[in-house]
Q: What sequence folds into this?
């Protein structure tokens, strides 16, 4: 009789325990993944963050938080030392044995999607909203997001019926030198196409191009992202290091646009609609 | 070279150092545990009947994170240092390091194939996936070393000079192949590859530990038995042969032990430089070139040094951590320069 009573007590304990956990929202968050940290912030969860990884650069206030290192190289004890209730990251987060150790310590590990499509964004927002206890706001945020993107797509389709899509390349560099060109399958390529451009680079991934190959592409518009410089400085450095670009149609017509390189990593973030808007305005200047 | 320290003093000092390193490695980390909790959790881990209330976290940190990591560090440090002694003995050159026979370059190539190739192929069986990287690194190290050894053989004799040059050539070749994979890799796999090349004891777990521990124990038991033969080899190959040493067999064993040991260490923890080069040097400086002292002392010193390096790696940037290869190189390279300049003066 006694063991049975103990068993019943144990079962009851387990049930109540899970119920209690289902109700208690995680209060201490570690976020590994740039776009995810931005979404957490957008959902009003910034004060719950106790640590972020090195790809979480936006908003700038996140940089003041303890850094748990690069998302693929987390340290189990390092993360645990922040006493988090939940660790959120994308499927890029790792290494797997460390995630197993963190789970083993009773921390909830939530793997979200870093895929560049709206379905992934919806799923991520749903999950984050659930964990933050404001599902309503998350739904609203996603509806706005989709609405903005849809409106832009509609406009671009209309524009493309009357004029040809401009040929564009995206260069990612370090103080101008040896820029990488964004080819197929990259987030940069996705951005360009969403904003209504034709990506002239047909290589896979990010690759270095020779000066000659770069000159041969002769884009209508040049988009550049620089990891160490910004604004006019980045542009001057790029043109100085790659004089062949000066002869391109884009440089002659001064159609050179800067892009924040942090937009290119870690899935689709909340800053995307504004960025796409800006790019498409640059691609179709006559539409305004 | 005269010895500065008596062997017995050295062994006592190194054993104490090693115990200190083990203790610190268990007691310190980004999560600060009260000393008393660490002691009690440690006592519970070795099966002493101590009350366990409020110790869940300490036991978890100690048992699941710090202990496997400490064991991994001990095994990797010991094996790398022993392989360093074996290589310096084989090549009769204090500048030799385990990388010379191509094992590190081969392992790096294996890792590149696993990381970059794995991302192309996809559909790797679920059971195999976590071990693929270690397995490829191990096989790569073993394969390239076997090739270097084969190239050094001629008419049943192993020519050490040819082996050395073959090792350099194959290292360059493997480096080029890794470079090609690096070029073809996408951003994500590139980062993984870079971090792997810097080594880390992060994420050590018992399941992945035992092959290395097995190899470490084998190598640690085997190499010291060859101490006399290595001493004889110091005099030169023909002298050793006249002293009754089977030189060909000895060379084969030394290369095999190094390939096995370094291959397993690299497979478990990535590339960690300088331990195999600096530790035997240091010990020789303190205790002279007698392999009967050099081998066991290097084992202790290598294990201790790696644990101390790992402590720095996990504490200095906490809660993030530094790859350990960076730490060992930062300690090792200046020390090596110091030895070089000191010898010149």
A:
């Amino acid at each position: 009789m006694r063991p049975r009573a103990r068993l019943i007590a144990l079962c009851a304990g387990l049930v109540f325990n899970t119920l209690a956990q289902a109700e208690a929202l995680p209060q201490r968050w570690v976020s590994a993944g740039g776009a995810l940290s931005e979404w957490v912030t957008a959902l009003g969860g910034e004060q719950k963050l106790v640590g972020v990884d090195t790809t979480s650069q936006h908003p700038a206030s996140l940089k003041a938080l303890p850094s748990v290192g690069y998302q693929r190289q987390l340290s189990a004890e390092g993360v645990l030392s922040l006493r988090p209730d939940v660790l959120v990251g994308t499927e890029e987060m790792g290494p797997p044995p460390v995630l197993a150790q963190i789970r083993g310590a009773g921390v909830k590990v939530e793997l979200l999607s870093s895929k560049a499509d709206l379905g992934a964004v919806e799923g991520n927002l749903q999950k984050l909203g659930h964990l933050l206890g404001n599902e309503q706001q998350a739904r609203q945020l996603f509806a706005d997001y989709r609405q903005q993107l849809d409106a832009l797509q509609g406009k671009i389709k209309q524009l493309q019926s009357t004029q040809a899509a401009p040929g564009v390349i995206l260069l990612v560099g370090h103080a101008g030198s040896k820029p990488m060109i964004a080819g197929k399958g990259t987030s940069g390529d996705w951005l360009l196409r969403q904003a209504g451009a034709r990506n002239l680079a047909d290589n896979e991934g990010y690759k270095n191009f020779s000066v000659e190959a770069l000159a041969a592409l002769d884009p209508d518009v040049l988009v550049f992202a620089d990891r160490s410089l910004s604004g006019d400085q980045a542009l001057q450095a790029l043109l100085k290091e790659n004089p062949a670009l000066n002869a391109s149609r884009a440089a002659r017509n001064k159609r050179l646009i800067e892009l924040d390189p942090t937009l290119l990593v870690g899935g689709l973030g909340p800053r995307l609609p504004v960025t796409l808007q800006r790019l498409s305005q640059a691609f179709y200047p006559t539409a305004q | 070279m005269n010895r500065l320290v008596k062997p017995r003093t050295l062994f006592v000092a190194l054993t104490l150092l090693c115990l200190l390193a083990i203790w610190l490695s268990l007691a310190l980390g980004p999560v600060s545990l009260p000393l008393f909790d660490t002691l009690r959790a440690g006592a519970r881990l070795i099966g002493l009947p101590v009350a366990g209330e409020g110790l869940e976290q300490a036991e978890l940190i100690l048992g699941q994170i710090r202990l496997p990591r400490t064991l991994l560090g001990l095994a990797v440090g010991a094996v790398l240092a022993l392989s360093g002694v074996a290589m310096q003995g084989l090549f009769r050159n204090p500048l030799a390091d385990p990388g010379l026979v191509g094992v590190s370059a081969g392992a790096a190539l294996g890792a590149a194939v696993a990381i970059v190739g794995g991302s192309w192929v996809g559909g790797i069986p679920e059971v195999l996936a976590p071990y693929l990287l270690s397995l490829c690194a191990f096989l790569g190290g073993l394969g390239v070393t076997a090739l270097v050894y084969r190239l050094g053989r001629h008419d049943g004799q192993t020519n050490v000079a040819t082996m050395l040059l073959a090792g350099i050539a194959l290292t360059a070749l493997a480096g080029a192949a890794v470079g090609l994979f690096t070029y073809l890799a996408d951003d994500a796999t590139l980062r993984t590859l870079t971090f792997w090349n810097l080594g880390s004891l992060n994420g050590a777990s018992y399941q992945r530990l035992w092959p290395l521990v097995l190899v470490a124990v084998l190598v640690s038991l085997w190499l010291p038995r060859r101490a006399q033969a290595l001493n004889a080899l110091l005099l030169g190959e023909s002298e050793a042969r006249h002293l009754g040493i089977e030189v060909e067999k000895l060379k084969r064993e030394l290369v095999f032990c190094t390939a096995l040991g370094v291959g397993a260490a690299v497979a478990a923890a990535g590339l960690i430089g300088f331990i195999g080069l600096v530790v035997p040097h240091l010990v020789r400086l303190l205790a002279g070139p007698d392999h009967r002292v050099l081998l066991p002392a290097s084992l202790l010193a290598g294990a201790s040094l790696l644990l101390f390096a790992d402590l720095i790696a996990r504490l200095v940037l906490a809660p993030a951590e530094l790859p350990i290869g960076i730490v060992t190189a930062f300690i090792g390279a200046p020390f090596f320069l110091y030895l070089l300049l000191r010898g010149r003066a």
Observations:
- The mean pLDDT of chain B is 91.
